[in-house]
Structure to design on (227 residues):
């Protein structure tokens, strides 16, 4: 999943970024309210982790503004003090949950999981193409009923492809969604992951789902695209 972290304390931001990356998420980090609000509007995130005390614009204003502009991404607010007022203002501004600082990473992770689960349940329960199935809740992937073991990045890549079926996805798009906005589209990391994923999902099956569209990118489809 793609997550935006808006937090001006670099130590805290990097701690969150590192931990969530290890869970297989793509993380963008922003260090002030103006930039964070901008990113939240222009990019499509699955979750936004938003600190309340931020330079330029506080988290409560950021949350209210993005909600006013139609952004429905779940927001997890980080409040510095155990202040009832802050929490109420945050929830009133459209936040979905809050976490009081300092917190243990496990606690953050539990909230993140709960919010992402709620989001995937409201989306589609199981993603399928032909006899390939991906369950976003249990993170289980099967083809023709047989379990396929994927690394966290391979899983994230497959989930992104399955959410965008029959569309040619460029390396830049894949990089932004599955890695992060600083991803270098010139690197061959995506090709390597696609090739691993292709052999895991397609090998031994007559119907190939993963296709390379020369000079354009990749596409997951059941249609015959002539390659
Ligand atoms: Ca802060």
């Amino acid at each position: 999943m793609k997550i935006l972290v808006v937090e001006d304390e670099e130590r805290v931001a990097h701690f969150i970024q590192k931990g969530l990356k290890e869970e297989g998420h793509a993380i963008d980090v922003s260090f002030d309210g103006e930039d964070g609000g901008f990113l939240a509007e222009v990019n499509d995130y699955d979750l936004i982790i938003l600190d309340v005390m931020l330079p330029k614009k506080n988290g409560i204003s950021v949350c209210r503004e993005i909600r006013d502009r139609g952004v429905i991404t779940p927001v997890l607010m980080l409040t510095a003090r155990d202040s009832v007022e802050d929490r109420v203002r945050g929830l009133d501004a459209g936040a979905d949950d809050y976490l009081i600082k300092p917190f243990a990473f496990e606690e953050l992770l539990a909230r993140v999981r709960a919010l992402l689960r709620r989001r995937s349940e409201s989306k589609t329960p199981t993603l399928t193409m032909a006899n390939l199935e991906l369950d976003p809740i249990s993170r289980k992937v099967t083809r023709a009923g047989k379990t396929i073991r994927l690394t966290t990045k391979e899983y994230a890549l497959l989930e992104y492809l399955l959410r965008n079926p029959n569309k040619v996805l460029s390396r830049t798009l894949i990089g932004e969604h599955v890695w992060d906005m600083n991803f270098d589209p010139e690197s061959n990391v995506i090709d390597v992951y696609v090739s691993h994923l292709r052999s895991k999902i397609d090998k031994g099956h007559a119907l190939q789902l993963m296709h390379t569209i020369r000079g354009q990118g990749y596409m997951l489809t059941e249609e015959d695209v002539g390659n």
About this structure: Residues 8-9, 51, 53-54 surround calcium ion (CB under 6 Å).
